[in-house]
Amino acid sequence: MVLCCDGWIIVSDWTLVKRFFVSIGTRIKEERLRLGKSQEELAACAGVQRRAQIRYEQGEREPDAGYLRAIAAHGADVLYILTGRREQPALEDIKTLTAAIEVIEEALAKRRATLPPAKKAEVIALAYDILKGDAQGQEKVERMLRLVA
């Protein structure tokens, strides 16, 4: 296999195949969804039209520095968008993780229960996922804890 230009590769039988990669557009969409915004909402935050937002997400256009600066001001992780790496968790993720730990700790204290560290970590991760995606997350986490602790 030999890498060619523009993301194409040549496989052993000399067939050109488009190399799989996660594009900047895909990561913009991931960040938009993580922030809980619609395409229209993120476009408005950045001062662009919805159609431009769609083009960015579909990889038809690459965003300029002004767009990236604007969405960063609304919580988007621009380092992740550009490189695919997160240096540190986004602020919303830290808040959600903190809330998950607090809910678990309070529920365990109420029940005077303890969990081994590995099980506690698993329950905190599950609570994080529930709280991240659901307005009634705390209630669901407490119900889950009644079952395990």
What is the compact description of this entry?
Helix content is 62%, strand content 5%. It has 8 helices and 3 strands, in the order E-E-E-H-H-H-H-H-H-H-H.
**CA(first)-CA(last) distance:** 53 Å
CATH C-level of the largest domain:
Mainly Alpha
Give the overall form. elongated
Largest sheet at a glance? 3 strands, antiparallel
Segments where pLDDT lies below 50 for 5+ residues?
A: 1-21
Rg over alpha carbons: 21 Å
- Strand arrangement, major sheet: 1-2-3
The counted number of beta strands is 3
Contiguous helical run count: 8
Strand content: 5-15%
Count of discrete structural domains:
2
Question: Mean pLDDT, rounded to whole units?
Answer: 79
| Oligomer designation | single chain
CATH-defined fold name of the largest domain: 434 Repressor (Amino-terminal Domain)
Description:
This protein is mainly alpha-helical and 149 residues long. The protein is 62% helix and 5% strand. The chain contains eight helices and three strands, in the order E-E-E-H-H-H-H-H-H-H-H. It has a three-stranded antiparallel beta sheet, with no helix packed on it. A hairpin with a 5-residue loop joins strand 2 (8-10) and strand 3.
Secondary-structure blueprint:
Elements: E1 2-3, E2 8-10, E3 16-18, H1 24-34, H2 39-46, H3 50-57, H4 65-73, H5 78-83, H6 91-111, H7 117-133, H8 137-148
Antiparallel strand pairs: 1-2, 2-3
